[in-house]
Structure formats: structure tokens, C-alpha cells
Design goal:
The chain is α/β, with parallel strands linked by helices and 507 residues long. The protein is built from 18 helices and 12 strands. 53% of the residues lie in helices and 14% in strands. The radius of gyration is 27 Å and the shape is elongated. The two termini are 35 Å apart.
């Protein structure tokens, strides 16, 4: 239980700085398995040389105690990593990640020693060694199930990542000291200091922020994300996990974001002219976050019905509390975007997809099947708009998604968001041309909202040719993460000095 809880909590501990990419997940799982393998080997030899109950529970005690130390010894390394990542210093960041993972070597190896040691102590008759081993591994697997589900569903949302380590380490340490007390009270007393130390660390862990950042006014760990709200010069920003992208923005004095969100307003105007603001009847937003797009749509198009889909309920709460996400025309659904869309019966003028777990678009929202589902939920002149990442010299993901969209929609248009690593792809249900945006801009009524006019003007200047090349993503095969990893690796190897955090305005 403690081993799996440590592994699951490691995703949150490291994800707050390094993100939740498949590389991070794979590295954590792989290194934990390596440490366990070493522990199984050492534990078997140790048990043969010292088959004593007191030795077994002493190993357990030290494994528990060192597990409780993980978040505290890793904290200075992680804080330094956050600074190097902000500057996109890839070698230093990679070194910090590996350095942090080395902190798991001692506790996980010690915990790995316990299973073979337990089997050695329990076998009294060689003829029943198989039965004994089976019982130990069955019980161990039950503990692993608890360690898999409890941290994510209960403990981390309730008390946070650092105290989660203390909680599971403390439970295991109590069991170890109880076992020692039964076998040798003297040995048990010698290990009591560990409980006192963990209690002190627990009190210390309840203070301070997980990822300190200037202007922080709110921080919370949800089952999905580390959520932070930052306020600077009257503007609030929603940061998630490693904080390398801004997921929502709010300034009570202006509706303009000067970011990716503004360009979603242009999407309907790729329809053949004349197309007027009054022709936008409703909208669905997948990846609502704290409501920047819904706020802009309400301001520009009036109180049209808007369905906002957001998987993280705690982000919804933060949006209502800190980002004025309280429009009467906004209906919020807390669910996975694709699942929620499939269960809707409405048809929309616009479906906006802004679902990111930086730097990845969820793969199941990039496939032919998903786009076919979206098409079924569009009105006759409906459009689909999706935010896609790129680098200045690598547009492979943009091109692959364009190719995939063109297997479902007749036309796809491309707007590069200025001064960012973002591109908005707009797929229209009717055949359309890029010039439609310009013609509709010229035909805008005089009372059209200034932000709409501004977004269309800038969007028209940043239109790019649609280059539909690369793989077609399907539910069976959608190598989105591998392609994204390749794009990021090429960007790093090219030695660009621009920081992702400075260029990626939304996700």
C-alpha cells in the first residue's frame, strides 16, 4: 500500500514542476520498478542471512521513515527545477528530475525487501512454500489496490501531496513499531523517535505552498490538478500543475485577453458571407477552465446559451470564485469533454475545444471519431475550433490535425496566434475559404463589439495556408504524445532561447 501510494503521489509531486507528460509517467513507473527489483533481490538474500522478525520490522520502520522524508528532501530540488524550467534550461531540468527520482531509491528499495523477507519468515514447511507465497502476494496486491485508489480519490484532495507521504509512512511505521513491540520492546523503543520526527514533519508540511509563485492568491490540489490562481496588476491567471501555461485570464476592466481565447470569436465568420454576429445562436466549450471563452462569447454575442464542459470540478469552483464565471446563460457540465458531448442532444453554432494537459491535447479529442461526433452536434452553418500547439519551425501537429479534420469536414482554416506557440484550427461544416473571414469583417455592422472586430482583423493578418500532411489520428492509433514529444525535443535541441512560458498564453 505504501509503495503504490508513494508512486501515485510521485506523479503529483513531480507533476507540479515537470508536468504530467507520458515521459514523466513512464520515468516514474520505470524507476520505481527498478528500485523494487533491487529490493526483492536484496531482501531475499538479507532474509536468508538474518531470518529474524526484529530485522523484518526494522527494515519496515526505516522504509516507512525514509518514505516520509521524500517530499522534504525533494523540495529544494523541485524549487530549483521550477526556476530552470521557466528558463527552459533542459539539461538542468532533466538533472533535477533524475535527482529527485534518486530520492525514491532508498525507501522503495527497503519496501521491496519486505515481500521476500515475509515469505522467508512465514515458510515453516517447504511443501507449503507455494501456498505461503501465494497468500503473501495476494495480500500485497490488495494493499497495492488501496495504495492506487486512496491517494487520488481521498487522501491527496483532502490533505495534499506532502501530507499524503506522511500519512502512508506513518501508518506503515505504526505497524512496524507494533511488530517490534511484540517481538522486542527494547527495539520498539529505539524506533519511537521516528514517529516523533514524522509528526514534526507533518506539522511543517502543512505550511507553505507546493509551488511558490509571485502573486499567488489561491492554491488547491484537486483529483486532477494542482490549481493556482495568480493576481498581477488587476489581472488574474489560472495556472495548472507545472504552471507553464495560462489556462484562463480575467481582468474586470477589459474583456480582451490579448491571447489565444480572443481568436475563438472569429471561428463562425469563416462561413460564406454574409454572416453576422446575430447568426451565432449558441456555443459549446470543451475545456471550459475558469470561463474566459464563455465570458467573451457572452459579451460579444449577447446572452446566447453556452454549454461549458470541464472535467475538474475544483477548477469550476475557482472560476466562479475568482474569474466571475457566473453568467446566467452558461450551463456547466463537470465531465470528460468527449463523453459529455456524446450525451448532449443540442446542436451548436460553435464548438470550441481548448482542452489541454500541457503540452498535450488529450489524444481522444484529436481523432476522426471525435470529430465525427462533433460534426453531428453542429448546426447547418456550425464550426469547430481547436487550439493546437506548435513551435516556430515545427508545425507537424498542426498539419496532422488539419489532415485528420479534413477527413470529416470539407474545409479547415489556420490562424497562428501572434507571439505564442498556439494555432487555432477552424473546421467548417460548409465549404468555405479564408477570404470569407475578410469579407465578413468588411461587412460587420457598425455596432459589432470592438473585440470581435479586433480579433477578426488580427486573425485575418495571421491566416496561414492549410497544410494537411502527416498521420490521420483515429481511436485505434493517435500518436499525439509521441509527435508532441518529438516537436519539443527538436525545439530544445535547436537551442532556442525563448521560454515556453513566455510564448504559450493558453492551453
Amino acid at each position: 500500500m505504501t509503495t503504490l501510494a508513494s508512486e501515485v503521489a510521485a506523479f503529483r509531486l513531480l507533476g507540479n514542476i515537470f508536468g504530467t507528460s507520458n515521459i514523466v509517467w513512464t520515468s516514474i513507473i520505470g524507476l520505481i520498478l527498478l528500485y523494487l527489483a533491487v529490493g526483492y533481490f536484496i531482501g531475499g538474500r538479507w532474509a536468508d542471512r538474518s531470518p529474524k522478525v526484529t530485522t523484518f520490522f526494522s527494515i519496515m520502520a526505516w522504509g516507512a521513515f525514509t518514505t516520509g522524508l521524500i517530499p522534504f528532501f525533494s523540495r529544494p530540488v523541485l524549487l530549483q527545477a521550477s526556476r530552470t524550467l521557466a528558463a527552459l534550461n533542459a539539461p538542468a531540468t532533466a538533472g533535477a528530475f533524475l535527482g529527485t527520482m534518486l530520492l525514491f531509491a532508498v525507501p522503495v528499495t527497503l519496501l521491496g525487501c519486505l515481500s521476500p523477507f515475509a515469505i522467508r519468515l512465514l515458510i515453516s514447511e517447504p511443501s507449503k512454500s507455494g501456498e505461503t507465497s501465494g497468500k503473501v502476494y495476494a495480500l500485497s496486491t490488495c494493499g497495492s489496490l488501496l495504495g492506487s485508489f486512496l491517494p487520488i480519490l481521498v487522501v491527496i484532495p483532502l490533505i495534499g501531496t506532502r501530507l499524503t507521504y506522511i500519512f502512508f509512512a506513518g501508518v506503515l511505521l505504526l505497524i512496524a513499531i507494533t511488530g517490534l513491540w511484540v517481538s522486542s520492546r527494547t527495539m520498539a523503543l529505539r524506533h519511537l523517535w521516528m514517529l516523533a520526527a514524522l509528526l514534526g514533519l507533518g506539522l511543517f508540511a502543512s505550511r507553505g505552498n507546493l509551488r511558490p509563485v509571485a502573486g499567488l492568491i489561491f492554491e488547491h490540489e484537486s483529483p486532477y490538478n494542482l490549481i493556482q490562481v495568480v493576481e498581477r496588476k488587476d489581472t488574474r491567471y489560472l495556472l495548472l500543475n507545472e504552471g507553464q501555461g495560462v489556462h484562463s485570464i480575467y481582468n474586470p476592466n477589459t474583456i480582451k485577453s490579448s491571447g489565444t481565447w480572443d481568436y475563438y470569436l472569429t471561428a463562425p465568420f469563416f462561413n460564406s458571407p454574409p454572416f453576422l454576429p446575430s447568426d451565432v445562436h449558441n456555443a459549446a466549450i470543451i475545456g471550459l477552465a475558469a470561463g474566459t471563452i464563455s465570458r467573451q462569447y457572452t459579451e460579444v454575442y449577447g446572452e446566447i446559451p453556452i454549454t461549458g464542459i470541464e472535467i475538474d470540478g475544483d477548477i469550476i469552483t475557482a472560476g466562479r470564485r475568482y474569474f466571475a464565471m457566473q453568467q446566467n446563460n452558461l450551463h456547466v457540465i463537470e465531465a470528460d469533454g468527449r463523453v459529455a458531448l456524446a450525451n448532449l442532444t443540442d446542436k451548436f453554432s460553435v464548438i470550441a475545444v481548448d482542452a489541454y494537459r500541457l503540452p498535450y491535447i488529450p489524444w481522444h479529442m484529436t481523432t476522426q471519431e471525435f470529430f465525427n461526433e462533433a460534426r453531428l452536434h453542429l448546426q447547418e452553418r456550425g464550426v469547430l475550433a481547436i487550439n493546437v500547439g506548435r513551435t516556430p519551425n515545427d508545425r507537424r501537429l498542426v498539419d496532422a490535425l488539419s489532415a485528420t479534420l479534413l477527413t470529416v469536414f470539407p474545409s479547415v482554416h489556420v490562424i497562428d496566434v501572434p507571439d505564442t506557440f498556439n494555432t487555432i484550427l477552424i473546421a467548417t461544416l460548409q465549404h468555405s475559404t479564408p477570404n470569407n473571414l475578410i469579407d465578413n469583417l468588411n461587412n460587420l455592422p457598425g455596432d459589432a463589439h470592438p473585440l470581435l472586430r479586433s480579433a477578426m482583423q488580427t486573425g485575418a493578418k495571421n491566416l496561414r495556408p492549410t497544410n494537411a500532411t502527416g498521420p490521420i489520428f483515429t481511436d485505434d492509433q493517435a500518436p499525439v504524445e509521441q509527435l508532441t514529444n518529438s516537436i519539443l525535443l527538436r525545439y530544445i535541441l535547436e537551442g532556442s532561447s525563448n521560454a515556453l512560458s513566455d510564448n504559450t498564453t493558453s492551453s
